[in-house]
Amino acid sequence: MSIIDAYYKRVGEILEEVFDKERELMEQAAKVIADANKEKRSIFAFGCNHAGLITLELFYRTGGMVTINPVRAPGMMLEISPITSSSEMERLPGYGRIIFNGLPAKEGDVIIIHSVSGRNAVTIDMAEAAREKGLTVIVVTNMNTAGTVTSRHPSGKMLHDFASILIDNHGDRGDASCKLEGFEQKLASTSTVVGAAILNAVTARASELLWAEGIEPPVFMSGNMDGGDAHNKAVIAEHKDNIFYM
């Protein structure tokens, strides 16, 4: 079997497992996000480095929710050199609280936090601070990894310890998924593909729940489609009190 076929097969297996075993939790997350939109509460999304790619996937994206605010902190979005510094920065105790304290977050708001391992201090501090302030914390992690590594946080706790809603991405331990005969290191991570599928499905379901109540979902239209710019300008204006990236 070609590695192309092996990767396609493995991603399909993981997605099937996720959408079977995590369905109830995805429904819970969708309801929380729908309610936040309905009640004019704010929604944030965060991840460190490659985990932060899911934040970008949810943000300013055709078909995505206008009301999801990315948390893009210095050193956390693969924007620094040498890139190895980003791995050191996500382990810094206290930095997650500094980031969170800079957000206009209030009790009753929602934050989505994505991390494969859930072991590093920044995401743990972020989740802990958010829970203390009364936010609903939706965590997407890989329990095959998080359940087998030690915390790098002074408390010894993991990201999933602070989840209000915990969604497992069911990826392989360490995230990489495919083997070459005779080569020890596995290839091809799955967390970005699967994480994007999970949270696109969750936010789409949130929109469906709003629509079922007669509420127009706050969703972006492609700016490359006729009428897209006007649509987006109107929906941004309607939800401006809960948008912090403009």
List low-pLDDT spans.
none
Biggest β-sheet: strands ordered side by side in the sheet? 2-1-3-4-5
Sheet/helix structural class: alpha/beta
Alpha carbon gap, first and last residue: 48 Å
Helix content: 40-55%
Number of extended strands = 7
* Percent of sequence in beta strands: 5-15%
Q: What does the average pLDDT come to?
A: 97
Please outline the major beta sheet.
5 strands, parallel
Task: Estimate the global geometry from the Cα principal axes.
Answer: globular
Return Rg in Å: 18 Å
Instruction: Give the count of helical stretches.
Output: 9
N-to-C SSE series?
HHEHEHHEHEHEEEHH
What would you note in describing this structure?
This protein is of the alpha/beta class and 246 residues long. It has helices at residues 3-21, 23-38, 53-58, 84-89, 95-101, 121-133, 143-146, 191-212, 228-238, and strands spanning 43-47, 68-70, 110-114, 136-141, 165-168, 176-180, 183-189. A 5-stranded parallel β-sheet has the order 2-1-3-4-5, sandwiched between helices. The protein has a two-stranded antiparallel ribbon with strand order 6-7. Helix 6 (121-133) links the parallel strand 3 and strand 4. The longest helix has 22 residues, at 191-212. The radius of gyration is 18 Å and the shape is globular. It starts with a helix and ends in an 8-residue tail after the last helix. The model has no long low-confidence stretch (mean pLDDT 97).
